[in-house]
UniProtKB/TrEMBL annotation:
GO molecular function: DNA binding
CDD domains attached to this UniProt entry: HTH_XRE
InterPro entries the record matches: Cro/C1-type_HTH (IPR001387), Lambda_DNA-bd_dom_sf (IPR010982), MLTR_LBD (IPR041413)
Pfam families per record: HTH_3, MLTR_LBD
Gene3D superfamilies in the record: 3.30.450.180, lambda repressor-like DNA-binding domains
SMART domains linked: HTH_XRE
SUPFAM superfamilies, A to Z: lambda repressor-like DNA-binding domains
Domain annotation HTH cro/C1-type: ranges: 14-68
Protein name: XRE family transcriptional regulator
Top-level taxon of the source organism: Bacteria
Higher taxonomy: Bacteria, Bacillati, Actinomycetota, Actinomycetes, Kitasatosporales
Length: 263
């Protein structure tokens, strides 16, 4: 065990993650095959954790991949996980697989977003719902939160907008509790400040017994969707770890029939 002065930040950061997880020093030590004394020394700066120890503790505390790199840097180590750009040739196979999944889900809407809700890919079902969205919101880089919550986006057509808006903002707040992401914080402050469009006060009906649906008016019809989100299992790249595929499942037979006919 070394006793060199630790780079500022890593001890308090690890303690914050441990407390957030509701885990005692002893319990974390048992999980990480260490000792409570060693964990205490790390948190107080008396011991400089190795790269392996930082990664082990982060794993047992379910620290997001981007924050694991931040812990390593704070401990004086190089980042461990690479961060690819979305247009990197190394992600070609991934992009092809995602395109196949999105196409296979048609005619139901589906899209893929990154950690700040920029739209990475979408299928024709999503395109159908964008018919009345202001063109400037559809210019790259498109952002799913802006498109949904802006008064010139989907917001005026979402019949239970106040419910759906509350769900989305809660989702972003949960992410911000885990990530020190300035872009995500700025996005939250922006979209939470959008004025509310008239209406949108409808309450979800029968389908809300399963999950909160998004009820939207489209082409004179009332469509209802249940949203599911899928992420990649055991990613080893920061970018891939933050990608999420959101699919919209018809919440009633009428919506399913309309989409199949329109598709």
């Amino acid at each position: 065990m070394t006793t060199a002065t630790l780079s500022p930040g890593v001890g308090p950061l690890l303690r914050e993650w441990r407390q957030r997880a509701g885990v005692s020093q002893l319990e974390l030590a048992l999980r990480a095959d260490s000792s409570a004394r060693h964990i205490s020394f790390i948190e107080t700066g008396k011991s400089r954790p190795s790269q392996e120890m930082v990664l082990r503790l982060a794993e047992h505390l379910d620290v997001p991949m981007r924050e694991r790199n931040a812990l390593l840097v704070a401990a004086g180590h190089a980042p461990y996980y690479p961060e690819s750009s979305l247009d990197s040739p190394g992600l070609d196979v991934l992009r092809l697989g995602i395109d196949r999944l999105l196409t296979g889900y048609e005619p139901f809407p589906a899209l893929v977003v990154d950690g700040t809700y920029q739209v990475w890919a979408a299928n024709s079902g999503i395109g159908m719902l964008m018919a009345d969205v202001a063109p400037w919101l559809l210019e790259p880089p498109m952002n799913a939160m802006r498109i949904t919550l802006h008064p010139e986006g989907l917001a005026p057509r979402i019949l239970n907008f106040r419910e759906w808006r509350g769900h989305l903002l809660d989702q972003m707040r949960r992410q911000l509790a885990l990530l020190r992401s300035r872009p995500l914080r700025e996005l939250y402050e922006e979209v939470s400040g959008y004025p509310l469009p008239p209406g949108g006060e409808e309450r979800a009906g029968e389908s809300s017994r399963l999950a909160l649906p998004m009820v939207i008016r489209h082409d004179g019809r009332r469509l209802s969707f249940l949203s599911t989100i899928a992420t990649f299992n055991t990613p080893v790249d920061v970018t891939v770890s933050e990608l999420a595929m959101e699919t919209f499942l018809p919440a009633d037979p009428e919506t399913a029939a309309y989409l199949r006919q329109a598709g």
